[in-house]
Amino acid sequence: MTGGAKDVILLNQVYTTYEGADLPVIQDVSLHIKPGEFVVIGGPNGAGKTTLLETIAGLLPVVNGSVTVCGHDVVSDGCTARKKIGYVIQNFDFHPFTPFTVEEVVLMGRYGKIGWLKRHSGYDMEKVTSAIDNLGLTLIRHNQIGKLSGGQQQKVLIAQNLAKEPEVLLLDEPFSNLDMVTREEVSNLLCEIADGGIPVLIVSHAFDALPNRTIRVLVMQNGKIILNQQSDPSKVGNLVRTASVAA
Ligand SMILES: Nc1ncnc2c1ncn2[C@@H]1O[C@H](COP(=O)(O)OP(=O)(O)OP(=O)(O)O)[C@@H](O)[C@H]1O
């Protein structure tokens, strides 16, 4: 979207693997993502979509190639890179007696900025409150996380990553547990974030929940990107289906 802007996410012929796996799951993936891009990663189950997000988040061994986020290599400079990345995971399961409130879990998003032993500031709490309000969690702010529904917990994790003030936002199936109204609200929120210049990458099968703006579509198959193009949101589902069937 921004002509000569620098790539915020840069993957160069990347292969990544899981501990103990025989072959790399991600194979020969190159990718350039600029500020403000809204990226949807689609493709069949097992294609490597989550693995690609984990690769960008610096959570997997890079066997070959390089992954850079905001100019920081996620392997050699992983600590710095990860502070700039918000990552909302797909599978989470809070035990009913997890001893943290919504507010405390969202505040954890600030830990990288305030450091573990320092006290949080008024600014940190402003960011926490704003994220809580934006996700419609105000009334359950002091509730225990483990006693919330799956959809409410998902919103708390999104709020935690917004409070982090990331420079890159990755979300794995962000709409999967959400009702129709909340889907639209979260979709609009993600659109605003991307419009503000932060690239947003989502893995999703819910193509009807996409915001009304230009989308970059990545389709994955067997650990490779088999389609990478810009699209109108209404055409994303068809593009993913067609590319997956043709592969
Ligand atoms: N922890 C792991 N250890 C070893 N292999 C794994 C691990 N997690 C995933 N895989 C393998 O990596 C491949 C890609 O998995 P991944 O979860 O990235 O797929 P996906 O496209 O996100 O699928 P889905 O749409 O079902 O969520 C699969 O073959 C899977 O079996």
Automatic annotation (TrEMBL):
The keyword Glycoprotein does not apply. Residues 9-247 form the ABC transporter domain. InterPro entries: AAA+_ATPase, ABC_transporter-like_ATP-bd, ABC_transporter-like_CS, Metal_Ion_Import_ABC, P-loop_NTPase. One of its GO terms (molecular function) is ATP binding. Pfam families: ABC_tran. Keywords: ATP-binding, Nucleotide-binding, Transport. This is ABC transporter. It comes from Methanospirillum stamsii. The lineage of its organism: Archaea, Methanobacteriati, Methanobacteriota, Stenosarchaea group, Methanomicrobia.
